[in-house]
Each structure stands twice: as structure tokens, then as C-alpha cells.
Design brief:
Helix content is 39%, strand content 17%. The protein contains 8 helices and 9 strands. With 208 residues, the protein is an alpha/beta fold. Helix 1 packs parallel to helix 6 and helix 6 runs antiparallel to helix 7. The protein is globular, with a radius of gyration of 16 Å. A hairpin with a 2-residue loop joins strand 8 and strand 9.
């Protein structure tokens, strides 16, 4: 699995780095999550500058794509020069977004009428884009998932792990990063948030 974590200028470190850290626990199985940016380097909302591992166009080649959020996402959503570089196919790719990243999914027409999750600050903008916003941390329909709240990045990572790997892969990755003394609790919460949507997808495939 090759994963693009879309990271724009003004990005939220928690969104990009937590998902990257969890997903890269699968390096031994050939997985790699890449920080993917529209420029050679981007600076976070708190002044942390990182170099892009992959250019934005890599998103079209990746097996999974996660949109992070940031303080400049509304500017990105109004920039054809950036949006036109993102060519995704939800029929063959897993596509997820977090917080204001959900706004980018809406602008790119990738939600396809699905309800979505986002953070409280972005909620009015996503509603304005014609999306029904859910009051929950995670939702997935087919190959498209959304999450709301910075720490919900663990749910997006869990979803990619369960869809691209297995439940055991997800449990092992979350168990590794979870706080000592609370590991079972964290694993149960992450799997509980994501598993119903994966089960629905599995049932859909079986019906086909």
C-alpha cells in the first residue's frame, strides 16, 4: 500500500503526523505513507516546516489518499491551480479526509452526496458546500471516509489499515501507539468506531 497524506501550507501537525506514524507501522509489509504537498516544503500552523516526500500529483497514483486539515484550507479550496492537480478515483482508491480536509473532498466532488464528518470550525463551510454534516467522529461509505477532530486521525488510519490490510494489522498498530495502561481501551475505541463501516463494505462486496 502506497499512501498519500495531503499536507498543505498551514497544515495541522496532528492530522498529518499521527496518520503517517500509525500507517508507517506497516513498513515491514511494504506499506509507506508519504507526506504529499503542492510545494517542495510547507509550513504548519505552528511554524514547523517539512519537506514534501512526494509531489501533489502522486495522489493520483496512491492506493490510499488522506486529506489533512489546516488554517489555510479555505484558500486551497478556492485555488484551481492546486485542486486541478488532484485527480482521484474513488472506484479504485481509498480516500479519507479530516476536519477541513472534508471541505476539499466536497469541492472536488468526491463525496457524491454522502454525509460527512468535520470539525466544529469547518462545519459551516462544509454545510455551505451542500454537505450533510454528522455529529460523530468518523463515517465511511464505500471507499470514502471522513473524520472530525484532530485526534480522529487515528480512526482514518484504522480504516485504511482495516481496508487495505486486516483487523489484526489495525489492532497491532493502534496498540503500539496507545498509552501504556490504556492500550486495550484505545484499541477497542478505534476498532469500535471503524469496524461497522468496514463490515458494511464487506457485506456490499459479498452481495456483488
Amino acid at each position: 500500500m502506497q499512501i498519500a497524506i495531503l499536507t498543505f501550507d498551514g497544515f495541522n501537525e496532528l492530522d498529518s503526523f499521527i496518520a503517517s506514524g500509525i500507517l508507517n507501522r506497516m513498513r515491514g509489509k511494504g506499506w509507506k505513507a508519504h507526506i504529499t504537498c503542492p510545494e517542495e516544503a510547507v509550513t504548519s500552523m505552528n511554524g514547523v516546516t517539512v519537506r514534501a516526500e512526494k509531489p501533489l500529483e502522486f495522489a493520483g497514483e496512491a492506493d490510499a489518499v488522506l486529506f489533512g486539515s489546516g488554517m489555510k484550507t479555505r484558500d486551497v479550496a478556492q485555488s484551481p491551480a492546486i485542486l486541478d492537480r488532484i485527480r482521484l478515483d474513488p472506484a479504485r482508491q481509498l480516500i479519507g479526509a479530516q476536519c477541513s480536509g472534508t471541505l476539499l473532498l466536497a469541492k472536488l466532488g468526491l463525496l457524491g452526496g454522502r454525509p460527512a464528518c468535520t470539525d466544529l470550525t469547518t462545519k459551516p463551510w462544509v454545510i455551505e458546500a451542500g454537505v450533510d454534516v454528522l455529529n460523530q467522529p468518523f463515517h465511511a461509505d464505500g471507499n470514502v471516509a471522513t473524520a472530525g477532530g484532530c485526534l480522529a486521525s487515528q480512526y482514518l488510519a484504522t480504516w485504511v489499515l482495516m481496508r487495505g490490510g486486516s483487523r489484526e494489522d489495525a489492532e497491532n498498530a493502534i496498540h503500539y501507539v496507545a498509552p501504556v495502561g490504556q492500550k486495550d481501551e484505545y484499541v477497542a475505541r478505534a476498532i469500535g468506531a471503524v469496524a461497522p463501516f468496514v463490515a458494511t463494505q464487506a457485506a456490499y462486496r459479498a452481495a456483488e
